[in-house]
Each structure stands twice: as C-alpha cells, then as structure tokens.
Amino acid sequence: MSKLIVGERTIDCSLVIFDKDGTLIDYKAIDFELARVRKKSIEDVVGEEFVELWEKAVGVNMEQARIDFRGPLGTSPTRDEMLVAATAFYLKGCSWEQAKSLAERAYSHADKLMKPPYGAVLLDGVFETLKKFKKSGLKLAIASTDAHTRIVKSFRILKIIDLFDVIVGPEDVAQGKPAPDMILEILKQTECAPHEAVMIGDSISDMQMGKNAKIQASIGVLTGITSRNSLKKVADIVADSVAKIQVA
Hints:
Helix 1 packs across helix 5, helix 2 crosses helix 4 and helix 4 packs across helix 5. 44% of the residues lie in helices and 17% in strands. The chain contains ten helices and eleven strands. The protein is elongated, with a radius of gyration of 19 Å. It is α/β, with parallel strands linked by helices. The protein folds into two domains: 151 residues, Rossmann fold (3-Layer(aba) Sandwich), CATH 3.40.50; 85 residues, no CATH class. The strands form three sheets. The protein has a six-stranded parallel beta sheet, with helices on both faces. A three-stranded antiparallel beta sheet has the order 2-1-11.
C-alpha cells in the first residue's frame, strides 16, 4: 500500500477514487461550455421562445454570464437535467410526451455540437499530482456524473487517460451519487477491498457516496462548489486541493 498525506493525517491505501469536475477539472469552464451549447441546441431544436424558461429551470443566465453552480446544470447528471428541461417545455404548453421527446432531441443535438475536451481544463497541480500517485503504485479511478464516453474523450486530449485504471459514469451503474454503486463497481473492477480505498471529491454527495460504500476515508477538496464548513460535516478530512495531497 501507499500512504496519502493530508496535512498531519496519513492514510494507507491502494486505490484512490476521484470525482472529476471541481476535483480534477475546473468546473466553471465545463459548465459554461455546457450552457452555451445546450442553449444553442434548445434554439435549434425546440425554438427560441423556450430558451428563457429553460434557463430559469436549469439555473443559467447566458446574457449576464451567470450560472447557479448548485443548480441542475451544475450538479445533475444529464438524464436528470433533461427531465428538468422537459418540465420547462411542458410548462410552455407541450404535452408531457412531446416535452420529453424534445428534451432528448435537444440534449442529443447539444452533445454533437460539443467537441472534446468539452471545455475541460485541469486545475493547477493536478497533472503532476496524478503522476506522483501513479508512480507510487496506486490504482486510480474516476466516479463522475459526466457521461463515460465524454470523460474518456476529454481525458485523452488532456493526456491523462493512461493514468486511470477505471472510469465509471452514471450510465455504468443502476444508481448515481450518493448511492455507493459507482464505488462498488470500481472496487469490483480493481479487485480492491473497501478498506483499501479512498474517495476524493468536492461535493457532499461525493463524501456521502464514500460513506455509503464503507471505504476507508472520504477526502473533501475546496476547488469545487462546497464550502469548508459544509464539507467538514461529512468528510473525514478536508484539503485545499488535490495538489495539496502528498503520497509516500
């Protein structure tokens, strides 16, 4: 096993599981790119008259360059956000079946408009830290609400794909965060036991997922949407960033 060093704490582990956006990736850049292409897709597929209500529903105001990063676009898996969009279309007068169909078409069109790495930018120090973790013999994995294929494509361009042993997205499991399914799938694929694993993420749901999977420790980082005080309530340890975590 390797040793993770977080401040004065030392943790023996064989597997480190990371959230993606807000933990390894600058979540703001990702969300603005998502908002831009999804708004364009709503205009193309559904109509400009639906855009304003969609923006309110998902927590976006592109004219003022504002996003509620704790809203549906900022925190929800795509399949959940599509239901929010469908509800907005329903409130504009579509039948529920029509609203769901339009949302699926619009979000599928938006996926085609986006090009890898989908606005993804690594946070400072992440690349160097991941290389140190890997060199130490740790197995590395991703548990993200982003689509599996999108994670793989963006990581290839960012040149970090080869550092990860397993990538799990929401379509790979029955239940997303904070259910333990993602971590349990990673443990299965890496043949690691819960006591050998550590979860690192920026959200309360990341920490709860770690607790629900009964892994050794859940480490919260402050590069995402959650404050230190909020993370302290659910995390075993809080670090300023992934880059501040050492390995030995």
